[in-house]
Amino acid sequence: MKPQFYESLNRQVLALLEGEDDLVAAMANFSALLNDNLTELNWVGFYVMRGEQLVLGPFQGKVACTRIPMGKGVCGTAALANQTQRVADVHQFDGHIACDAASNSEIVIPVRADGKVIAVLDIDSPIFDHFDEEDQKGLELLVKSFEKCLFA
């Protein structure tokens, strides 16, 4: 059932971003789309690479950390490793940065242009172990479509 859900959501992403070339506008609408369609989230948005740190970008949720050093927390680890980080219990993640105490699980997916990380998509849930392998595959598909629309 989840694969079909993500395929449907992917069609919405492609329609939403068709012809859009402004990164901020695309990130804002992408965040809003995910926030409206995914359940049991307390934060969804982007951190954008600025030098050797991630800086808060468009998001949906409570006030967030503004800057995250590379390699720090789940977001900084995903950016440095250029690899999705899916964390069942953020309180067990070494170096976790608690921007919102209500977050218990998290998934962070790198956003790439020409193979280089330019941002990360960060999604938090108050539910432990909220994101499974199907969510990861589905969300990575959505990010690939985001990249294709903006950078292809």
UniProtKB/TrEMBL annotation:
<comment type="similarity">
    <text>Belongs to the free Met sulfoxide reductase family.</text>
</comment>
<keyword id="KW-0560">Oxidoreductase</keyword>
<dbReference type="InterPro" id="IPR003018">
    <property type="entry name" value="GAF"/>
</dbReference>
<dbReference type="InterPro" id="IPR029016">
    <property type="entry name" value="GAF-like_dom_sf"/>
</dbReference>
<dbReference type="GO" id="GO:0033745">
    <property type="term" value="F:L-methionine-(R)-S-oxide reductase activity"/>
</dbReference>
<dbReference type="GO" id="GO:0005829">
    <property type="term" value="C:cytosol"/>
</dbReference>
<dbReference type="Pfam" id="PF13185">
    <property type="entry name" value="GAF_2"/>
</dbReference>
<dbReference type="InterPro" id="IPR051330">
    <property type="entry name" value="Phosphatase_reg/MetRdx"/>
</dbReference>
<protein>
    <submittedName>
        <fullName>Free methionine-R-sulfoxide reductase YebR</fullName>
        <ecNumber>1.8.4.14</ecNumber>
    </submittedName>
</protein>
<feature type="domain" description="GAF">
    <location>
        <begin position="41"/>
        <end position="143"/>
    </location>
</feature>
<dbReference type="InterPro" id="IPR000614">
    <property type="entry name" value="FRMsr_CS"/>
</dbReference>
